[in-house]
Design goal:
Helices cover about 40% and strands about 20% of the residues. By secondary structure, the protein is of the alpha/beta class. It has one domain: Rossmann fold. Strand 1, helix 1 and strand 2 form a beta-alpha-beta unit. The longest helix is centred in the middle third of the chain and has 20 residues. The protein is globular. About 20% of the residues are buried. The model has no long low-confidence stretch (mean pLDDT about 90).
């Protein structure tokens, strides 16, 4: 069974539960970040969105340097790159920390 981790933009710390549950297998564990323009259509201030995306890019690089297999995607939406990544890595189990905002909870 292949497990993967999807990290959202408000869950950027190494101690978050989805990453911690896979830490022993991090060299074989694919991790996904999606920077979506769809997110810009939500009621976010554009400067905040730029800061979130910058933080995501920096955290993705930290995980790479720590031995994780990271995929970072810029896309129009979340669903398309997520499904492509699941297919590419043959993910059977997706681990994600529970989203705190309603749009992500509905997506998941």
């Amino acid at each position: 069974m292949k497990t993967g981790v999807w990290v959202l933009g408000d869950q950027l710390w190494a101690g978050q539960s989805a990453l911690q549950s896979c830490i022993l297998d991090r060299d074989q564990m694919p991790v996904l970040f999606v920077e979506s323009l769809q997110h810009g259509q939500l009621p976010y201030h554009l400067q905040k969105l730029v800061l979130v995306w910058s933080a995501m890019r920096h955290f993705a690089e930290e995980l790479r340097q720590d031995g994780w297999s990271v995929t970072y995607v810029q896309a129009e939406d979340f669903k398309t790159p997520l499904l492509e990544w699941i297919d590419q890595y043959q993910i059977i189990e997706l681990r994600i920390m529970s989203p705190v905002d309603r749009p992500f909870m509905e997506l998941v």
